[in-house]
Design brief:
The complex is a heterodimer of chains A (107) and B (355).
Chain A (H helix, E strand, L loop, with lengths): L2 H9 L5 E2 H11 L8 H13 L3 E9 L2 E8 L1 H26 L8
Antiparallel strand pairs in A: 1-3, 2-3
Chain B lengths: L5 H10 L4 H19 L4 H10 L4 H15 L7 H35 L25 H19 L3 H25 L5 H18 L12 H24 L9 H22 L7 H24 L7 H31 L11
Helix pairs in contact in B: 1-2, 5-6, 5-8, 5-9, 5-11, 5-12, 6-7, 7-8, 8-11, 10-11, 10-12, 11-12
The chains are: A alpha+beta (107), B mainly alpha (355).
Chain lengths: 107, 355
């Protein structure tokens, strides 16, 4: 799973969001490191929807325009949990290695 | 559309780059999200934004990249776009193989210079392969760029797309600098042919590497890896042998050789294409694309003969035209099947990778 897909799924973990809502949430979650462009966002949403990990939730009118909200599917929630566990396990390994006494870093 | 704010109209124009099926599904959503990203809630500011602002180039670039991935489809794409994606991927591999064969020939030259060549007395390399006189850049850099194409080809076949892309950009830039230097110093023997080669075999593959995206099915390794040495043995070695035995006049130039090879491949594929058994294969479409590249290369490089840059022999123009006609006749046999391949090929793998 790419970093972008991981952040998009995470942005939907606590409830449905519309396109620009996801962009804002991803920026916040990543502390500004991931700034999704609309073309990139919908590339990711299309893949996630094709893989059955997200689905449309509802449509709401806003300024005369319809905003479509997306939510995680059960598979999406499972895939996100799996990916989060994988990343956490990797982080634990890294922290354990860094905690070991080793050669001093240069510089 | 006329009632829409100008910013929206501009963004919708950009979205026209996307395939119809995709726009049908996502366009309204994308427009809404795009406008949300601009609007502030202040009526005066929003009016100015909607009237005067334009989509940022990063937004346009993200749509262009998305369009490239969709048109050159992979897993889960509609058949038509999957067929185009596969044909472009095969065409790029074939073009990179041309480069890689030249790289192998460069290696041969190194062995030759060091006296390690098994044939020992093979004559000096063709002028087009040799570093140009009067150019300040060390010849080693140019040779290294030549060898890099072997690595790029193998990396692409093995699925290391990012590494192949980075190396290809670097090699193409070195080739470009080399060409530009040659152009400025007047050392280029065949400027039309050299520039055509750079555009068709450096620039186009670098751009078309977008076809090797996450959804692209993996390249079938063995046939492509075997094709490289086979290509060298079947094409470059006979060419060298003809040169070594004094029959250089019978060796076509690279554009001519490209036309002849693609024509032979078209003729070999024609019985299958004409019988309808090839429907569902993407090879007809691939050969049509390769024929277009070979024909463009031949036509542009004829400029060198017309301008008297290279081998001033009027017969070479007639030979070049004959090669072109042969190619067109051969490709005409498989073109109808190439059209059918877009709809008749088997469904692509169903599930793209998430993300």
């Amino acid at each position: 799973m790419t970093g972008q897909a991981f952040f998009v799924l995470t942005a939907l973990a606590d409830g449905p969001r519309h396109g620009y809502g996801i962009v804002g949430e991803v920026a916040e979650l990543s502390q500004g490191r991931v700034k999704l462009k609309i073309g990139s966002l919908y590339g990711v949403l299309d893949r996630l929807a094709s893989a059955g990990l997200i689905e449309p939730d509802r449509e709401e009118a806003h300024d005369g325009r319809l905003r479509r909200y997306y939510r995680l599917t059960r598979d999406g929630r499972g895939a996100l949990a799996e990916e989060a566990e994988l990343r956490a396990a990797t982080a634990r390994v890294v922290r354990a290695r860094l905690a070991r006494p080793g050669p001093q870093a240069a510089g | 559309m006329s009632g829409e704010p100008l910013l929206e109209q501009r963004y919708r124009r950009v979205l026209r780059l996307l395939p119809g099926y995709y726009r049908e599904r996502w366009e309204e959503d994308m427009v809404a999200a795009f406008l949300d990203s601009w609007l502030t809630g202040d009526p005066y500011t929003d009016e100015c934004v909607l009237e005067f602002c334009k989509p940022a180039w990063q937004e346009v670039a993200s749509v262009v990249l998305l369009a490239a991935r969709l048109y050159l489809g992979g897993a889960g794409a509609p058949r038509r776009y999957f067929a185009w994606g596969q044909a472009v991927r095969f065409t790029m591999l074939a073009l990179l193989m041309v480069h890689a064969v030249r790289g192998l020939d460069g290696l041969r030259l190194v062995f030759l210079e060091r006296g390690l060549h098994p044939l020992g007395s093979v004559p000096a390399p063709p002028a087009a392969m040799a570093p140009m006189p009067g150019i300040a850049w060390p010849a080693g850099v140019w040779y290294l760029a030549g060898y890099a194409w072997i690595v790029i080809f193998v990396a692409l076949v093995l699925g290391h797309y990012r590494a192949a892309r980075v190396l290809a950009v670097m090699a193409a830039v070195i080739d470009l600098v080399w060409l530009a230097q040659g152009q400025l110093t007047g050392a280029l023997l065949s400027p039309y042919g050299s520039w055509a080669f750079w555009i068709l075999c450096d620039l186009v593959p670098v751009l078309a590497m977008a076809a090797f995206h996450r959804d692209a099915p993996p390249v079938t390794r063995r046939p492509w890896l075997l094709a490289l040495p086979a290509n060298y043995l079947l094409v470059a070695v006979p060419e060298l042998a003809a040169t070594a035995t004094g029959h250089q006049a019978w060796v076509p130039d690279l554009p001519g050789l490209s036309c002849i090879l693609v024509a032979v491949l078209c003729l070999a594929h024609a019985p299958k294409a004409l019988s309808g058994r090839a429907s569902g294969s993407v090879w007809s479409l691939t050969l049509v694309l390769l024929a277009a590249v070979a024909a463009a290369y031949r036509i542009i490089s004829l400029g060198d003969h017309l301008q008297g840059h290279y081998l001033q022999d009027p017969h070479l123009i007639a030979v070049g035209l004959a090669e072109l006609v042969t190619l067109i006749a051969a490709v005409a046999l498989i073109t109808p099947d190439a059209g059918r391949a877009q709809t008749a090929m088997p469904a692509p793998p169903a599930q793209p990778q998430p993300g």
